[in-house]
Amino acid sequence: MKQGICTNFGNCTKADDPDRLKHPIQIPDGAELVCPECGAPLTPAGKGPVNVLVPMLLVFALLVCGIGVGAWYLFKPKPSSVASVVAATTPAPLRTSPSPPAAITPPSTPTTAPTPEASAAPPPVTVALEIHGSNTIGSNLIASLLDGFLPQEGWSNITRVPGKDPDQYSIQGVVSGRSGVQSVQVEARGSGTAFDSLAKAECDIGMSSRKIKPSEQAMLTALGDMTSPACEHVLALDGIAIVVNKGNAVPSLSRKQIQAIFSGQTTDWSQVGGRPGHIDLFARDDRSGTYDTFKSLVLESASLAPDTKRFEDSNDLSDAVAADPNGIGFVGLPFVRSARAIPVSDQNTAPLLPSAFTVAREDYVFSRRLFLYTPANPPNPLTLRFIRFATSDAGQEIVAREGFVNQIVKKEEPKPASPAAPTPAGDLPPEYVRLTTNADRLSVDFRFRTGSSQLDNKALDDLDRVTTYLASPTVRGKEVMLIGFADNKGNPKANETLSNERAKIVDRQFNSRGVLAAVCTGFGSAVPVASNETDEGREKNRRVEVWLK
Predict the structure, then answer these.
(1) Does residue 109 register a pLDDT over 80?
(2) How far apart are CA 486 and CA 528, in angstroms?
(3) Which residues are within 8 A (CB) of 246 and not within 5 positions of it... i.e. 6 or more apart?
(4) Domain 409-548 is classified in which CATH homologous superfamily?
(5) Scanning 30, 215, 418, 439, which has its CA 20 to 30 A from the CA of 397?
(6) Which pTM value belongs to this model?
């Protein structure tokens, strides 16, 4: 006899019999091993109950595994759709890391092939140059210079791309033979940030609307002598204009009056010759190079009045003054806009408006230089190529178009033969009047390094500019006159000697360039253009004028 067990559960009483394992169905040898009740095939049974249990356990185990796999598939974690979008839209890093990060092994779970939309990534961006610092320079001037410079470097499709805030943007383009997008990053958050960024190697060029401070110079000694011609580059000249509402009738202000107004000592316009009314003060923020210069030239040791309204942007400040009949503020020359610039005088000097000539010669009380600072040996070759372009005639034409005063040599109209223009300090020296009558004064005055008989960095560049100008057909054949001046500190006779020596220093430089001056003389401390009470004023008075006759 053969033994079998019916497994046709629910359809056969023999399969549903709880004692089926103890009493298997007996089938004669030679007969088919099927259930005599339901006809379903029987599972062969061995000699003991264990043999019968094994197939049942296997069936149960397979059933449990199937349920588990189904549940895992149904409830397994899905990738975050937000993370997927962020990963797909995050741009490539702007700077390539010196040491690339270690590769991350992807998960072993199979993934579906990406759709064409998901696989499209933005082109990589390569930062070719980084420029940080002054808002005065960075807001528009540097962008216009880059627009003129980059095409010479083979860039095309040049666009200005806004950054995460108004003081940050990039100039982007493509260059034949290079993959992806090339970019120049500009951050214009104030002159002080230029030197911090240079110290941290976060930029190639620092923009500053004031001269570097000794503390900043000490911080950057590893980059070279930041006051040397290799590091300090004069980009343009600018005048800090004192602006008021166009309806303000005050004809002019002295430096001392302006100091009293902004320090809160003078609070009503009637105290300086205007109509009665409270004076409303507007000033740039503490990070601004314009404010640093104003503080140095005007406030000195005094503090800004606490009720002064502060602005990060010169355009906004100027517009606020123009809209306030009692307002007064200070801005760079290109930002006067709808306000009125007021003439300014210093001790023993005539009131002057900021103009192309008064600022270019630095005769205007609040004239200043705009600087670009670089390491002495920049690792980025694009750095010096940009500096050369910005200070060339092509770059300086752009400077003028942006409303600043460029360094291209020009001449003023001749002075009338009589009478000679007097100065508040007294009559001009008769010999000075004789020499300069019917003569053309150039837009360049040569000045010297602080406490030194050496020409400063701008003067060294101006030597070549003047030499080139003198070779032009319009002035060829005219006599060159070099007239030196000193400040009034010390003995008048010694000052006259110093003024003559300064004129001779410039004369020797011109001689080496093939230019022979017909007149080389000095007039001591006569004809001051600034106050001799301040270091800045004395520096301006120590100068050599250039005249043609």
Answers:
(1) no
(2) 8
(3) 322, 338, 339, 340
(4) OmpA-like domain (3.30.1330.60)
(5) 439
(6) 0.69
